[in-house]
Write a structure and sequence with these properties.
The complex is a heterotetramer of chains A (220), B (483), C (665) and D (314).
Chain A (H helix, E strand, L loop, with lengths): L1 H25 L3 H26 L3 H27 L12 H25 L8 H17 L3 H23 L4 H29 L14
Helix pairs in contact in A: 1-2, 1-5, 2-3, 2-6, 3-7, 4-5, 5-6, 6-7
Chain C lengths: L5 H21 L4 H28 L3 E9 L2 E7 L1 H24 L5 H23 L3 H19 L6 H28 L8 H6 L4 H19 L8 H7 L2 H26 L5 H24 L3 H28 L3 H36 L10 H4 L1 H14 L6 H14 L7 H33 L16 H19 L1 H16 L24 H22 L4 E4 L17 H11 L4 E6 L11 E6 H24 L4 H19 L1
Antiparallel strand pairs in C: 1-2, 4-5
Helix pairs in contact in C: 1-2, 1-4, 2-3, 2-4, 3-4, 3-10, 3-13, 3-18, 4-5, 4-10, 5-6, 5-10, 6-8, 6-9, 8-10, 9-10, 9-12, 10-12, 10-13, 11-12, 11-17, 11-21, 12-13, 12-17, 13-15, 13-16, 13-18, 13-19, 15-17, 15-18, 16-17, 16-18
Chain D lengths: L1 H32 L9 H11 L2 E4 L4 H20 L15 H22 L2 H32 L4 H10 L6 H17 L18 H4 L5 H26 L13 H25 L8 H23 L1
Helix pairs in contact in D: 1-3, 1-9, 1-10, 2-9, 3-4, 3-9, 4-5, 5-6, 5-7, 5-11, 7-9, 7-11, 9-10
The chains are: A mainly alpha (220), B mainly alpha (483), C mainly alpha (665), D mainly alpha (314).
Chain lengths: 220, 483, 665, 314
Amino acid sequence: MNLSFHLQVINLLAALLLLISFAMLSQRRVVGLVTLFAWQGAALAASTALVAWSTGQHHLYWSAALTLALKVVAMPWFFYRLVRKLDINREVEAVLNIPTTMLIGIALVIFAFNLALPISQMAGTVTRSTLGIAMACVLLAFLMMITRRKAITQVIGFLAMENGLFFAATSASYGMPLVVEMGVALDVLVGVFVLGIFFFQIRETFDSLDLKHMERLKER
Amino acid sequence: MEIYWVLGIPLAGGLFLAAWGNRARAPELNALFSLATLAAAAALTMRIVAEGPIMVGDGWFFIDSFNVFLVALTAFVAFTTALFSRPYMRIEKDHGRLNDARLRLYHSSYQIFIGAMLLALTTNNMGILWVSMEAATLATVLLVSLYRTPASLEAAWKYFILCGVGIAQALFGTILLYFAAEKILGSGGTALLWTHLNGVKEQLEPTVLQLAFVFLLVGYGTKVGLAPLHNWLPDAHAEGPTPVSAVLSGLLLNVALYAVMRSKVLVDGALGNDMAGNLMMGFGLLSVVLAAFLIKRQTDVKRMFAYSSIEHMGLITFAFGMGGPVASFAGLLHMTMHSLTKSAIFFAVGHATQKAGTQAMDSIRGLIRTNPTIGWGLMLGTVAILGVPPFGVFASEFLMITTAMHEHPWATPFLLTALGVAFAAIFGKVQPMVFGETELPRLPHQPALAPVFVHLGLVLMLGLFIPPYLADWYRQAAALLGG
Amino acid sequence: MLDATPLDWAWGIVLYWLLLAGAGLACRRHARLVTGLLFPLGALGALAMAAVGLAGLALPAGHFVLPIGLPDLPFHLRLDALSGVFLALLGAAAFGVTVYGAGYFRSMEAGPLALLALWYHLFLAGMALVLLADDAYAFMVAWELMALSSYFLVTTDHKVPVIRKAGFLYLLIAHVGAVALLLCFGVLQGGHGAYTFDYMRSAALTPFWASAAFLLALFGFGAKAGLVPLHVWLPEAHPAAPSPVSALMSGVMLKTAVYGLLRVTFDLLNVQLAWWGSLAIALGLLTALYGVVFAAVQSDMKRLLAWSSIENVGIILAGFGLTVIFYADGKGGLAALTLTALLYHAVNHAFFKGLLFVGTGSVLHSTGVRHMGALGGLIRFMPWTAWLTLVGVLAIAGLPPLNGFVSEWLLLQAFLLTPGLSHQYLNMIIPVAAAAVALAAALAAYVMVKFYGVVFLGQPRAENLRHAHDAGWPERLGMAWLAAGCVLLGLFPSVVIGWLAPVTRLLLSQTLVNDGNWLMLAPVSAERASYAPVVFFLVVVAITLVVFFGVKRVYHGRTRRAAPWDCGFPEQDARMQDSAEGFGQPIRQIFSVFMRVERETPDPFDAQPRYRGDSRDKVWLLAYQPIADLVAWLSAQAGRLQHGSIQWYLIYSFATLIFLLVFTR
Amino acid sequence: MTAGLILQTFQTVLAILLAPLLMGWVNQCRAWLQGRAAPPLTQPYRVIRKLFHKDAVLAHDAGPLFRFAPYILFACMALAAGIVPTIANDLPFSPAADVIALVGLFALARVFLALAAMDIGTAFGTLGARREMLISFLAEPALLMVFFTASLISHSTELPVIVETLAHKEFVIYPSMAFAAVAFWMVSTAENARIPIDNPTTHLELTMIHEAMILEYSARHLALIEWAVALKLFVYSALGIALFVPWGIAPAGDLAALPLAILALLAKMLAGGAGLAVLETLSAKMRLFRAPEFLGTAFMLAVLGMLTHFLLEA
């Protein structure tokens, strides 16, 4: 019966992830976003570890650790510094107003669940029911990238999407082969590094990270 | 063993050049590394010619007729581009658009980029394929923004975000693929090996693979530049340094398409219908038509040829979507021809823009007066890319269009329109650039145009005569791609 | 060497031309070498090619496979009677033109001249390959090689914006036509790369697909032949090219389109439908009338000739349509007659149009003027050019005993024979068609009188014309060759028709019976119709001489010179002669429906009165302009998708993803 | 064959000699109808003879083309006279040129005359040439269509065969020939520069067509041209006769019918000339730009004739 208890905890964490995604959709301040992102990473790491422990998939510990290291510690720290350095902790005005975004988000969640339903039927994992949530997280992150006008928020959205993917991997098939996980993690790390460079470049060129300065290249 | 050389040299080169910095001879070293890579690739190719498909490193690397010619092509174009970039970048530096630090960045990430693409081509693991595709993107993001102009930064940013999001979809597709695979192949590394997957593709779960393919197509398709996912492409090509544009549109698009094709093979096997083919045909046609009409309104020469890349990628995708030995053969041939021709064009364009000091086509005039070699290079390259025989691009278009008329007549009006519009647009813009009078002085330095004419010579040769072994590769690859 | 078949010779000559092209590129420094050596050598090749063509007419078809091309599809070559006659045409016309060119290009500077030699010989080789190709790929490669090289020839003088525009338009329409041909071959091919013509001959198509193939071929080849409404490039491109090139394009290149149409319709397609013929006749006659009317209102001599080429193509196409009708109706003999007529006309046109173009070339060369309003009286300053051109003028005006008349005669005979047809409505239509042909022929005479009269006769309209120098010897030689062709083809039609017999046998498995003998032409039967040009010619000459010497003998031959009659108005000057516009004015008035006229008339007190009458092609305004606008509008719409905001781009990706997910459920 | 040759030469010479007579006769009739004192019947001969005796005056720039045109013109008309069956029906020459060639022959003469007119480069020469060509480009196809109607009936474009069919086969009424006849009359007025298209006796340069072309000619050249013009009128009349009232022309190889044929010819010519004179007197010369409409009508009538042939006689 304790398996089912783990399961409940995992489902809880999954729900938490979804919740956090929605929170990110509605969050207006950059620092708040970063915090939420850190929490999401934490939830992800926790659930991964839990799955690893409950199913004896040891390589999942590795990925849990990676997640913890990267997405809970390194990146939030990095982002905090960035926000302080570039002091961009202002209101992030959204393209759409929050309620509309929320409505769309709910629609997406429903869609994602329907999409995941047939697949999770045939999944052999204990955590199959959470696949839909993972997909929902991915789509919500996508939506967030669309609705935010600041470069940094887009990046956070991007990383949130990554989280969703990891979660999907864990819940659908107890994670990817370790090599791949490593590679992905490496890519994410490099990516964030590159982004850091970018922010400074953008900052010094446009003295703002607002994307509305970056709409010059178009068909006129 | 050659495979390790092929992958190792560029990586080593990247690290070394990063360390070496832009001291004297850095460009030469860059070219040298590329040459070494080319040599290794040649050796590998020889081996494949001799022994047929091989699996190296207990299944981690797999080289068959499909990717070996892409490896050879990539190494070759990488080398010629390195040759071209040597004088080009020096002039950029003289014009004060670049400094040592950026050149160091350029040289090292150039090698890394090449290495990543070669890895993507040779790996047997769909996951590693994804990883190296992402790595290739990351390596080029900073190259696109090399000039640090607002425009280039914006382009790089769009490139990064759009491709990043796209590639994330591809990762989801890969996860689904793994999810479907591990039930048959068991969990662990081998479940993502393409060869294993290919072996059991009939047993893979159709619904999952269908879903997976959608994500993979949207993901890698973004990097291929299929409309409407193409929006990053013209910006990145237009704002990056010309050598980067050349390798981006000449090589990276091919590699992305290669990834799509590898997945398509599996999906076709699993689904047993031509859903994937139809999707690709749809994307292909849309890209061809949209690109053709967008070319019409370009004023920036590099941007225009970027759109022409979208058009040709669309053609290739359409051909692969049609399937069948002839169409797939045509698609592979067109991949080769397009990367050779398009990179040649970018070389010529690069020198032309350097001379005119702008990329605006209205202010580039009478190249044939100021520098006949550039002028003729651009003219012949344009004629070639527009599919005029005896250049090889025509050979593939011939096969595609006739097959399309035979298999899918409904598509031909779109093709006819698109090709007509694209021809009118591109040629109508290039002709005044090449011909006519100008008051610009002759180019101070002697451009390195050997690559241009080497490429065009190859394209011409392949239009009239395709070596038997090359033809055999194409045939085997076409059979592999569901011929 | 001795046992080499005509085909071996043919592709040998093609190779030889390619080598000459390379050589042309090689001697970028030595202009004399190009004109003094390369062009004469090329001319020799052309002469040999003519011989090869004639041999190919006589001998059975030969096959050959070149080891180049696509992997599964090496170049198949074939030389049969049809290719033979067109190769002969190509060789014969190209010989004259190339000899002419050897003199004409002497004044060019070395660099452009070398390029010109390159493209010129590539052009010749391309046209020959088109005629030899026996599979779709080889055909298309040759076809586009021909188009491309001729494009570079047209834009030889690319500093002039108009010429660039002309070249662009030409290449564009040529390319669209080529794609249509690709689609046509796509219909004909058997899938899995069965692209050889042999396969296509054996394949059986349903009438629907056969019609599709025919229409595509008609479009593709029509675009090259200058079929209305695809003709717009022709009056721009032909005048833009250097005159020998215009001569080749008008004289030979247009015929390759006719060749292709015949090849596809009668050789590759295994079914012919009567309505194809009706369509072809309708289009052909429209083209003929349209062309000749516009020729009549031109004031630039090369444009005038270009339009007249459109007219002749139209007549040839009408003949083609009639052939299809007869053949589809099972009247092999009559089909043979029409086919002979149209082939004959193709050959004739090659000769006289080539002659006229090089004639204008000499005028252009020595005066630098193309506008007829600034020419005149040249017969006194450049007699060789003028008199040789006169032959071409009389020939193209369809006057006996020259060659233009023979083919028109044959064609009209064919029209007269239609009552045999089973379709009643065709019986009704054909006479009207015949009337239209007759009208076009008569108008051609009008056009030619205008052309010759304004350019060569009367008073020079500008002073510098008095110093115009006559053509040099190579030019004279080339023109004389072409003129001789016009005369001989006119005098000995029976012989020529004998030569053409294998073609009709090949395509229609039927030959034209000539009931006459070597000097009398009598198709079908001497009872029906006969024409003996030699007798005709001799009688006219005899009577002329008899009367001439008779008059001299019986009366004194005294002659005084005096000023011409000025009807009491002393200030007669050259500007009072009819200008080109003036000569065109009645036609412009009668056929004003075809064209939009723009004219500037001077006010009475103008010191330097200038008159400009310009007749714009309505097809351009009604068909092409709207298309251009539509494309521009569409591309503007497409451009709005691409408006820079990354959010929108993300939405595109997102929407695509969602759409596909929903779509594939 | 020899008989044929004799006939051929005889007929040709006869035509050449009789041609001015017809011209004279027409002028006489016109004079009578207009109530003038008529010139003698032989007036044209006198004019020609007078002209031959004069010294030729050439413009300074007149070239060989200008000088040779009259001879070519004359030769063409003579050949035409040899081809058209006037009195006899088997003519060795006629296979050399059928009706289409005949039209070509007229065109040849016309083009040479027009070119000659433009050679000197006076305002009126070019004006005449242009008008002449303008009229002919409608008249020529109309004439061709008239011939086509006839040859559709007789399944041949050989004049002798046509005449044979129309005259010596069993008598049939061909409605199509009625149309053809009207068209032929309209065309021949234009081709022979008669009223209502042109006025042979005008002296106002601006209204001239034919006369404007030959304005520069004098003496022997002019004489030849006048003669050729007369000959042309004769040939056209002969054509009209051959096509529409062919009875009386001697069939092949029957010399006995010859005298009768000559009489018939003379009778028909008298009637025809008179008729032409009457028509000319009744109608007035029309403005130049009405001429295309007039000839267009002729053209349409001829085509209509062919169509009626298909409707009623096929």
